[in-house]
Amino acid sequence: MPPTGSPGTPSPATDAVPPPVTPARTPSGSGPRSVWPASATPVGRDDVAVGGVPLTELADRFGTPAYVLDEDEVRRRCRAYLRAFPDTEVYYAAKAFLCRAMVHWVQEEGLGLDVCSAGELELAVTTGFPPARMVLHGNAKSPADLRAALRLGVGRIVIDSTSEIARLAASVPAGSRQKVLIRVVPGIAAGGHAKIRTGTDDQKFGLSIADGSAQHAIARVLSRPRLELTGLHCHLGSQITTVKPYLSAVRRLIGLLARVREHHGVTLPELDLGGGHGVAYRPGEPALDLASLGTRIRAELAGGCAAAGLPVPRLAVEPGRAIAGPAGVVLYRVLAVKRTGDHTFVAVDGGMSDNPRPALYGVRYAPRLVGRASAAAPEAVTVVGRHCEAGDVLAADAQLPGDLRPGDLLAVPVAGAYHLSMASGYNLVGRPPVIAVTEGRARLLVRRESLADIQERDIGL
């Protein structure tokens, strides 16, 4: 194991050796509070290897910006979920990051798949993923989404509004039934930012328990012979770092399960608690303890169902960020360093088109200089993107060497989730490639979007 240290914190001015990389915080929540993949190791005085491949080598070979994805870290985190949640359906949330290789890894590790559109669904199915092990989400599923789900045989469709019930029931072929879950809003505020909290009544997802919408939807689904209500679903939000909100949700959903049995004589066999499991983006930040989450949720569910006289439903969870996020690193080249008053701005060759999350809800990252040993003392700088927006900030108050200059290479960990999946074509800057690393080998998973790709979509005057 390499010596410990915080990525992004330069060595003292008297020591030209860059800071070592600490191993990643384990998926169970124990171990060092770092943010790098477990495979991250120092290379010489100035480089870092991930998956056995130096980051400088990847930048030279594939260019920048570029996403690097540690295959072994993805697989390790999949396995950690299966250990923490035995006898549970673990669905990988594809919205965090999806490509054909990711579909393949998830399938090989024994996880199901949570998709949100016909596009995600079709990519997974054409890669060979069994649709029966998929769940389709969405607060406003299009007719194309529903047609694709029914045509391909998706295992579960999560109903998010009452208007969807009749539309879906009318589309199910005669003589068959589609299994569905109802997304319930339990009235619990949880999540790292107001824009990613989805368990309260003031947002667009789900059907409220408090105003009776969930109960009304349950009755309507039970009256549709082509729909088979198999259970309840809820998703509280994202970047949740404590177990308590999930336990509160379990209690409220057990109460609703009991009322369904009382009013309709139906015992629903499934309960899907969604995802939202928080990860650390900077050293020392909290992350959800996965082992504790699994143990305490299952205990709460067993105890609550026993008290209500209900059989324990089959549990499902939907991690996305917690699997893909810490497995990714993004590489940027410094284009300019500008000192304005008390502020130092470090501009790189990417930005909000490849990572809109800081602009959307203020997430903070810990970039690190790689490829050059620096003896300069650390300074607080703002790492900004190349786009024509004042809000194009990738890392505020980042501690980086005071002698940063154009051409330097920066590596930003925890870049595997909600980067490429949320990337845009702003300023017609092509989206970066995705490179998988494992056992000292690198291979291209998703190629860089070229100017030719962009121009081909524009069919002219």
What are the main properties of this structure?
27% helix, 9-stranded mixed sheet, 12 helices, alpha/beta, 461 residues, disordered N terminus, 8-stranded parallel barrel
Structural class: alpha/beta
**Whole-number radius of gyration?**
23 Å
How much strand? 15-25%
Distance between the termini: 60 Å
What is the count of DSSP helices, taking H or I runs of 4+ residues? Answer: 12
Main sheet, how many strands, which sense, barrel?
9 strands, mixed
Q: How would you sum up the global shape?
A: globular
Uncertain stretches of 5 or more adjacent residues: 1-33, 192-200
Mean pLDDT: 89
Helix content estimate: 25-40%
- Per DSSP E runs of 2 or more residues, the count of β-strands stands at 21
Could you explain how this protein is built, in words?
There is one protein chain. Strands 4, 14, 15, 16, 17, 18, 19, 20 and 21 form a nine-stranded mixed β-sheet that branches. Strands 5-6-7-8-9-11-12-13 form an eight-stranded parallel β-barrel, surrounded by five helices. Helix 2 runs parallel beside helix 9 (290-308), helix 4 (118-127) packs parallel to helix 5 (143-152) and helix 8 runs parallel beside helix 9. With 461 residues, the protein is an alpha/beta fold. It contains twelve helices and 21 strands. Residues 1-33 and 192-200 have low confidence and may be disordered.
Q: What topology emerges from the helices and strands here?
A:
Elements: E1 41-43, E2 47-50, E3 53-54, H1 55-62, E4 66-70, H2 71-84, E5 88-93, H3 100-108, E6 112-115, H4 118-127, E7 134-136, H5 143-152, E8 156-159, H6 162-171, E9 178-185, E10 207-208, H7 213-222, E11 227-233, H8 244-264, E12 270-272, H9 290-308, E13 314-317, H10 321-324, E14 328-340, E15 343-348, H11 357-361, E16 368-370, E17 378-384, E18 393-401, E19 409-413, E20 434-438, E21 441-446, H12 451-456
Parallel strand pairs: 4-20, 5-6, 5-13, 6-7, 7-8, 8-9, 9-10, 9-11, 11-12, 12-13, 15-17
Antiparallel strand pairs: 1-2, 2-3, 4-14, 14-15, 14-19, 16-19, 17-18, 20-21
Helix pairs in contact: 2-9, 4-5, 8-9
